[in-house]
Amino acid sequence: MKEYIPTIGLEVHVELKSKSKMFSPAPNQYGGRANYNTTVVDLGYPGTLPWLNREVVSIGLRACKVLNCTITRRMHFDRKNYFYPDNPKNYQITQSRTPIGRNGFLEIEVDGTFKKVEIEEMHIEEDTCKSMHKGDVSLLDFNRAGVPLIEIVTKPCLSSSEEAMAYLETLRRTLFYASISDCKMEEGSMRCDANISIREVGSNQLGTKIEVKNIGSIHNVGLSIEKEIERQKACLERGEILREETRRFDDNLGETVLMRVKETGNDYRYFPEPDIPFVEVTDDMVEEALFSMEMLPKERKEIYLSRGISSVNVEKLLQNKELSDYLNTYIDTDLDFVVGSNLLLGDISSFLNRTHQTLKDTLLTKEKFQALVFKISTKELSSRNVKDILDDLMETEEDMDAIISKKGIENISDTTYLEETIRKILLENVSSVEDYKNGKDRAVKYLMGQIMKETKGKANPSMANEMLLKELSKQ
Q1: Mean per-residue pLDDT for 139-143?
Q2: How many CB atoms sit inside 10 A of residue 303's CB?
């Protein structure tokens, strides 16, 4: 069997987080009663005129910056003509000749290898209606009509499903942190089309490009790419000639299915939108778009790693923006970020999940969190202690010392006293010491139990365990 090289490009449609729609004052909201968030502009009534939402342009400029695109300083909109039930005007207002951004990139990491995914262009356009099919009946919900989108088109520079998924996850996280979109693929606010071709090893000529449309999850993007590569290989091995076409990924079948033979650009009869004037992008508009933009994931990752947080915990933090934002409020302090991140991802997350709250709903103050981290770092409190006092920390206005006093927590951290206690326990339990020497790890647990019993549960567990192991190594 011949060997083939895949070439992949992605087109990602992302709904923007504007208050109103792209060309009308209708609310830009997901869900709600069907056909409720609409105006006559969204419904495509004859004689209605669009007016461009300034906020949409501002969000688009922010997207250009975070995706390293060159901004088009003088741009206009175009009409893309096609006839389909979900397109009430029979044309879509988009950008063809003057996209808002060009020649950008996004850096991804796959198995420790970094790669720049080149972005060919990014343009603004309006979304269509949502079609729903029930048996022989098709229904339209115009709430989505006119919702602002950016379409981000990569160059054909991806070579595997793993790279494609890494790019989508990096893109999703970047746009979410920049408050450009909520990027909820399950709600359709981020949708992906994949362009896939294969060519024989040694050939410099790209194969026939086939598009897989409207893939609904990052996982399915990877799966559809793999299945389409397999299908194209099988076709070529049978001597078939591939043609440009549009396909979709069928979840149930686990394969791509033909939708239609590919349209050409001429089918759309693009021409400049006559009802919207040219947009001149000024430096002030760019500055306004970037005002108060939050720290992006890449910079957060660099800071967290430099403060000693493990790569696993860094990834978990970046998956939870609320926790990441909270930890960032301590960047200019000497807080122990390792202990702080462990707390946020561990006991505090468990509390929030159990009580169905966010951090803002709790009474955890900055002072209490700093005191808690300090006492754990200095081993004044053990992990067991934290579990005992956490509810009070999160739900009452009492300070740390008052809560510790109320709970009767007293950890012995006197090293001299602990050393004497450990030596006493080891002399009284010679057989357990021999078990440890013979590789029986359970002996440590038994000896720790004896130490806690001797100190009436007041020995600092972490400190005592560390000192016990050190003493055992001398035996």
Answers
A1: 94
A2: 15
